[in-house]
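so the lab meeting is tmrw and i was supposed to have these ready like two days ago... anyway. pasting both below. for each one the top line is the aa sequence and the line under it is the structure tokens. i havent really looked at them closely yet so no promises
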Amino acid sequence: MIAGLLPQVSRGLHVSTAAAGWLISGYALTVAVGAIAVTAATAHLPQKPVLVGLVALFVAGNLLSALAPDYGVMLLGRVVAALCHGSFFGIGSLVARRLVPPERASRAVALMFTGLTVANVLGVPFGALVGERWGWRATFWAITAIGAVALIAIAVLVPASAGARSGSADLRTQVRAFRSTQVWLTLTATALGYGGMFGAFSYLAYTFTRVAGFSTTDVAWLLVVYGTGLVVGNIAGGRGADHDRDVTLLVSLAGLAFTLAVFGLLASSRPASVILVFLLGVFGFATVPGMITRVTDAAGGVPLAASANVSASNVGNAVGAWAGGLVISAGFGYAAPLFVGAGIVGVGMGVMGAAVWVGGVAAGGTGRGREVKVVEGQGS
């Protein structure tokens, strides 16, 4: 949401574009730290009440942002809201997996993350539209109200059995899972893939208006196009990962790097921008279900690994947004973050290739069957 409001927030709080960008980077860094810390602190608790509490934290943070009198309070509100993010998606993905057979694990995660992709189709442009018409604070009030509805829905509708205490909740057991080389390679590839996409996405509002010549009111429907791509990529990525996870991840990363590079070259073309922002969403989110199931399988299904994957993605988000702001501040223009993103994703594709090769050597093949059995043994 904040990416579509960045120009309005910057003007309203009287801060620079780079400072406003920290409302994205600061959020992402807090997610990166909070995902690990909160998951570890709540590992001994039943997971459904934890999910409810995390959404309550989200509501409180957005309420604080809506009321913020200055930039410092606004950033604090973003930090409070971000504390819930990583653990919510990490724990929520494991709850989703627990409801289906192992061979449908990636699709279950994709379905759970459909909420996130639909939010980008509806929420992000809605936020930009509301912000343009009634001011950016109105958007945060709306998000606060929606968060309250979500809190009630989770409390009422999520099965208690699916949110029971994890069978691998012992913190020492969870930490030991991070001895796996595959865990670290997958986390690194996740960070680089997300970092490349967010290095571009964080400044898309400026790319559309300053490079392609769209009006500020056009940003809302352009973000709908991007969000539609996220939904398509999420569904396709989940199905592809259940069929051949590693191939799906490599193809998705290659497509993302190519899309970003071409987008950078054709950013001044309005028709090309519409097509490429859709493809950016498709390839950018096609990696999500496979990355989560890959890292949790490699870690034996422990909750901390799922949250670590969300942390890794948000480390990438923070670095990507910072790098994008850096090249803009250096005078390279508003298309420059697209090229930076392409380079970052290219490195991520190399890391993913190394992970596949190392896994193949260690397992004498793809190792997919063995990974699924490990997760089943943990009760996920």
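ok protien two:
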Amino acid sequence: MKAVQFHEVGGPEVLQYGEVEQPTPGIGEVLVRVTASAYSAADNGMRAGFLPIPIELPHIPGYDVSGVVDILGDGVTDLAVGDAVIGFLPMERDGGAAEYVVAPADALVPAPTSIPLADAAALPSVALTAWQALVDSGRLEAGQRLLIVGAGGVVGKYAIQLAKRLGVHVIATASPRSADAVRAAGADQVIDHTETDVLQAVEGQVDVLLNLAPLEPERFEAFVAAVRDGGTVVSTTAFIATPGDESRGVRAETVFVLRNRERLAELVSLVDAGELTVEVTRRVPLTELGAVHAEGAAGRIAGKVIVLV
């Protein structure tokens, strides 16, 4: 089968497109004929060698995937050959930047039927990140106030949609480039962080602060003042310590996204009900994945890129 893989960590040039052996599913696994995978900054980090996720080389990136079940491994009873599925694959194993991928059956759920199967690869890990940040870590409830710092990215727009569905007042920071999209996602207040002092623009305190931006530690700590006593600071930027304030009972939570089949199925149902929008900004062929990684390494990726096989 055709795949993109790297035999050593390094720059985007280490990615190679070519023929590799087709894998075989084991007990509790299935072979998926890949329709698409989604590019992620974490894939870039693993390829470059600075994200501490243990992988074996050579490694095929692409842990968000959509496709069709092709072969069932022993013990798989809740999926059938021909099922259209999506999944958040174990990050330490080979991913979906290939014609076929082996996936644990419990990592897969039926794909949304209301959007193209390829586009559905944009959903799993980013939507799960938003859900886990808001609900599992933030313990966000109806009637509360949420401040999202760096809401212009893909996780931010999922977080806005999910928070509004919970009945939460959402304040979001965004650059002029993404402000309209953040507002369209449902934010009640959008603050241009390039021109405005965010802390001055937020009237009153919030219950939860969700940080999605690569802030300087001092600036991140300053934002804690916007959180009420007993509130929560949640961050997805694992390379920066998440600050809290023990003296005021402000919790600090760092999110490391986890696979959750039940939650992913719920997110799919929200997509099909029209309550959650899946954003895809660009679709590229598998042969161009190296160029996409180069853009990502240079900080030029905006939105979600889908890699078609």
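from a quick look at the 2nd one: Residues 229 and 248 are 5 Å apart (CA to CA). The chain is about 25% helix and 25% strand. will dig more after coffe
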